Amino acid sequence: MKVVAAYLLAVLGGNTSPSADDVKKILGSVGADADSDRIELLLSQLKGKDVTEVVASGREKLASVPSGGAVAGVAPAAGSAGAAATAAAEQKKEEKVEDEEEEDDGDIGGLFGDNGLFGDDD
Questions:
Q1: Confidence (pTM)
Q2: Rounded to whole angstroms, how far apart are CA atoms 55 and 69?
Q3: What is the percentage of the chain residues whose pLDDT exceeds 70?
């Protein structure tokens, strides 16, 4: 992953086609080990490709990957749904309490007197 990050940093820096030495220099600047085999593998796979198109293609592929544990089974999903419903209900309760508190702030019932903030102005 650090090799990919170093490659992308080079591209962001304006180098549209970083070499192995460019990647090694970036990794060395932060004290990371540079694995020549991985660097060469990455460079061979990206040779002649536009990085922004590769990243966009990867995003599209990741968007189609199922997430959320739907494969885990029915019992855990039901437990998770119950926990989620409980959490949502608690959050609604908290919001309702906050709304009530906000409404109560408007009328303090003459706590400081009727003629001004602290009572009579005399």
A1: 0.52
A2: 25
A3: 56
